[in-house]
Amino acid sequence: MSSKPILVIGGGPAGLEAVRGIADLGYQAILIEKADFLGGMPISADYAALTPDMRSPEEAMGEMIVAITDNPSIDIRLSTTVVGSKGDAPNMEVTVKNAGGEEILEVGSVIVATGFKHFDPGKETQMYGYYEFEDVITLVDAEKMLKADEFARPSTGEAPKTVCFIQCVGSRDRQIGNQWCSKVCCGIACKQAIEVKEAAPDARVFVFYIDMRTYGFWEDEIYWKAQEDYNVNFIRGIVTEVTKRGDTLVVKGEDTTMGRPMEVAMDVVILSVGMEPSDGTVEMADTFELPLEPHGYIETTGGALNTVETTVPGVFVVGAAAGPADLEDSVSMGGSAVMKACSFIRKSELQPA
Amino acid sequence: MSIYKDAKYMDVPYEEKLELFNEVKADMRYGNNLYGCYECGICVAACPSARFYDFSPRVFAQTMAREDVDTFYELLNDSVWDCSQCYSCTRCPRQNNPGGIILMMRDAAVRRGLQSAKDALQAYSRIIYKVMATGTQVAPDMLQPDFFPDWGNDVKAVAENLDVWRRAIPPETLHTTELAWDVSEKTRLELYMIWKLTGNLELIEGIDEGIYMILEEVMEELLEDNGYDIDDFENILDD
To answer: Which residue of A has its CA nearest to B59?
Structure first.
């Protein structure tokens, strides 16, 4: 008798790594993906290049997808959602739904990999005018433009002369209720600043920040690189508002290290929006009765020493569903959850309830 | 356009500032003096000048790293002269050398004969003259009661009989009062040629014309006494 399958919900980087690991260890995996394609946010949001190594998302995610394709131990269900769950692991009955109707799957364990969503800049309490000014865009919008190889000032279609990034939009903000750092936006802003300079070499590019958090190797690989090789201006001080003077945006702020008030005309303002738990993450928390930690992500039990175990036995969480995570975090958590889910099943088989 | 609302020197054309900025950037030392600046302030913490003046080596590094031409021009006309060139700031974790950046900027300011360079060097006319004309700076006859009131009566006694005191020193070359030691005519001729050939004399002309004229006069006399023609410089070199 073969073991009951492990259900992985979400086909982004964390979920793909989890599925690959389950099959490699000789267990059965079922992958449920809401979209009609795999690869998660790097693909669905049209990322131009991954941080920090500038790899093509299609290439990198493609590698992960190939690793789980045409494997008899892996059952991939696209355009499918999880709508209900009954029973406790290792004897769970999970209801999934697609265009063909509902189906009940008997699974031994669940790995939730439903990720994050980008912060909606309409919710910020500063006055950046995302829905008011055409030339105010987000990191996500910029990725799309860079991917299409047409980074330009939206209102004119011309190459911009001044571009700025405003960091921590929707992150580290008690007013908004998002008190976390979204971890990746500093690195992504540096990466995009480099790409913008390559697309528009004459542009002056600014990054207005609170702290630059390009931890680990991101420090010299992207932050120093942007500053030293591309002359990107990093200014510690957050813009308080974006206004319009004539045809041009004006950002106001304080250069805190210089102690001087700033007022700078900008052709394009890029809001470095952070992460929030995705709708799918909130739904799965509800479906599997997983408590949320105080920031609203799925709670894990072991703090720094156990990043993937939820309070519900046999149910694990990986990637940005558990809190802001970069690709390295997500893939590492995927691997960690595989080890824990497989050992959970193995233990239950050795000592049947 | 400066990014600052309180920017100074906005009446100076941007092109003029940019030209000076590019001159500093083209300096062969630039790449070794500046990488990037994350504005940590370790250089300011180590800087003796920052304790006493409204001066910050950090501001130089960050301004240059940002290629902020307007602020560069502000610095060039003001606090670039407040540095004591001690290089305590080189403990920078990014391996920047703010003191080195300042030195390149000072060089540019002197080359261009900027007013800030003239003002800064005004108090040093006597030193420039002494160093360039004789190769020595501190002289025994500087020991005057007026200059060193805190030395009390001793300095008065020394000043009154300076010549005698100096003669009490065994080496004859130190029996001088106006110079730290006896400088030979050959040495002074060589010095003159160095200043002339390296372009330093020309630099002084742009900064302090009075001192330049005195130097020229003194040197010309020296050359004449030695039978040299100032306009026939190559011949002097051949000798």
So the answer is: A258
